[in-house]
Amino acid sequence: MSYLEKHAFLDQLISIPPQSDLGIIVVIPAYNEPDLIASLKSLHRCGKPNCSVEVIIVINDGENSPDNVKLQNATCYEAAQKWSHLRSGIQIKYHPLYIQNLPKKHAGVGLARKIGMDEAVRRFESLNRNGVITSFDADSTCSPNYFQEIHAHFDQHEKCDACSIHYEHPINGSGDNNTYAAIVLYELHLRYYINALKFAGFQQAVQTVGSAIAVKSKAYQQQGGMSKRKAGEDFYFIHKFTPLGTFKELKTTTIFPSPRVSNRVPFGTGKAVGEILENERIYDTYNPESFKILKQFVHLVPDFYSSIYSTIKKQIAPQLIPFLEEQGFENILQEIKTNSTDQPSFKKRFYRWFNAFRVMKLLHFLRDTHFPNVGVREASMWLIGELQEQEVSEKAAVVDMLLWFRKIDKKV
Questions:
Q1: Does residue 75 lie within any of the structural domains?
Q2: Fewest beta carbons within 10 Å, which of 55, 151, 152, 247?
Q3: The whole model's pTM is what?
């Protein structure tokens, strides 16, 4: 049974045949979106790659969505239809869809992404092509080289199944200064978290932003497609690939997600910005002590293969032992060792178990039992000091810390 037969939520949605040279399909979920056209204009201004491109816009609402949302969606759909009709051509085509009254159990951004990405699979399968599907957002924009760099990336890295794309929230402009100040704190938290994981030596430390993902169609199908989760679907989707060694980071183009306040999902950027504004620009993140303990644990991983657990256990930080026991670590470790022929295969299997989700659970455990969250400014000062190997001034501005992390994160 094919992926679409087994996993597709809906039947075929687009009847127009794709261009024979179709290589990239962008999928944009849109819910209660007032400014979708700005995102479409940004994509339309991009330089064209050596293939044709399609943009699938999944305007969606649930059976329990408020009437004002459905009215906004209808307005958005009409505007997208008119705009797309005038601009679709041979090199780039736009397909606005309006999917109404999705079941309340699943209605949300994850299902909307899945519907669009599954339709992209259907179009590539009709051509027997392993094209690239990119996930975008209806309130994001991008650099003019977006399509060209995505095409070049997968052309140059044949074994790459999926990638994250560098992103930067707007931190100044014509909008509200308080909102810009809030997004600085939130993005600083995101970059601190990933760089702290890298500091600890964790191998699957990558950004997981829904508007900044690209994946090959075949790999998308092999990993069971996009999750229907109402939030966090990007995190779970990306981390299907990170343990496989076929995931990369694309740093030569940039996505610019919106910094606006939003309650469309239960957590994420829009929700966090609103909370920061309510808390008068205070935002907490994971305690540096937790990453120091994680680093110590990761350093022991090679020894787990050759040593008896009862011996190596003495070297594990005592704060971690209850968490590991709760996870059944000793039995898991023995099972991994039994099924590993050498240390490299052990390491690969180990990190399939000790994945990004389990690491986050570990950090939550340490937060709740030993090391409470601290201010993101304080935590970032510590990490930048560690990475620079010199103390950061107490007067350092949070925006300067964010720019420092951006520079580090964009290094190719």
A1: yes
A2: 152
A3: 0.92
